[in-house]
Amino acid sequence: MKTSMFVAALTLIASTCATAQPVDTLSKIKQKNEIALGVRETAQPFSYLDASHQFVGYSVDLCLKVVEGIKTHLNQPDLKIRMVPIASSNRIPLMANGTIDLECGTTSNTVERQKQVAFSSTIFVSSTRFVSKKSANLADLSSLAGKAVVATAGSSNIRQITALNVAHKYGMRIAPARDFAEGFLMMETDRAAAFFLDDITLAGLVANAKTPDAYVISKTPLSVEPYALMMRKGDASFKRLVDDVLKSTFASNTIDGIYAKWFESAIPPKSINLRVPMSPALRRAIATPTDSTDAASYQ
Fold first, then answer.
1. Kind of pairing, strands 102-104 and 34-39?
2. Where is the signal peptide (predicted)?
């Protein structure tokens, strides 16, 4: 009886694998006449809600360029766009189960994540750092030994700081935050001495704080973080289309305008200018598009 049950189970598994359909995002979009974009609510200036409760940002603008390319490719000019709020902790599951088709946020392309999802060519290059109160005089990781710190749940930042904490025996007490806003609030209200996140996102949070001058971002980068648009794994045709649109955008002056709009101009909702010029690393990634996870590719 056990043998026959085992054989039946194997047969069911084999049948399931044989009938599994290949990933075809473009067919899904065409059939529904809708594309679902995964967006963030507080990731300024990449993906966030403005004063009119519209999702805007650098990553959103690039996603909308891709959508225009999809409309042309599918000959569906009336293609609908559905914005789906996501968080660091659920973005990969929502991509895997088909809830979203393309993610427009601040997701770093890593070797570990490539086991579950795919990534476009790099759209931004950032580094992990931490923000703290100036009055605390916290210059580096060693100054955080034994202290409570916070990083966003499900992020590469929390994995990096956890590994460094163990390797160097800092004894930091690391708490997971639900999102960027909660992480910054925990640091702001002294529930954590520091908040670890990608430096450009930290710059946006500090700029929009009630008292920006009260905070400082650490100087030493802990990693290189190539941001990319995330999509389902195993869909070569969709990735090719996304990358082709980005390559065309990068090759024209369009990318310079999009970048200047979000990093070198006053942005909503408070008309703050981050004044962050395009880095040499991003210039290289734009001149020669790549989806590499290797830090050397951006140096």
1. parallel
2. 1-20
- The amino acid sitting at 34 is E
Q: How many CA atoms lie within 13 A of 167 on its CB side?
A: 7
- Residue 98 backbone zone (phi > 0: left; psi -120 to 50: alpha; other: beta): left
- C-alpha–C-alpha distance, residues 265 and 285, integer Å: 22
Q: Give the tokens for residue 113.
A: 């994540």
200 in any annotated domain: yes
Report which of 167, 134, 169, 165 is spatially closest to residue 151, judged by C-alpha positions.
165
State which of 193, 217, 241 marks the end of a domain: 217
State how far the Cα of 194 lies from the Cα of 130, in Å rounded to an integer: 6
Instruction: Identify the band that residue 21 occupies on the pLDDT scale cut at 50, 70 and 90.
Output: low
Residue 151 sits in which domain range? 128-217
Residue where one domain finishes, among candidates 217, 236, 265:
217
Residue whose structure tokens are 């690039």 = 62
pLDDT, one tens digit per residue, over 89-143 is 999 999 999 999 999 999 999 999 999 999 999 999 999 999 999 999 999 999 9
- CA dist., res. 185 & res. 174, Å (int): 15
Mean residue pLDDT across the chain:
92
d(CA 265, CA 295): 28
* Residue 231: exposure state from Cβ atoms within 10 A (0-12, 13-18, ≥19): buried
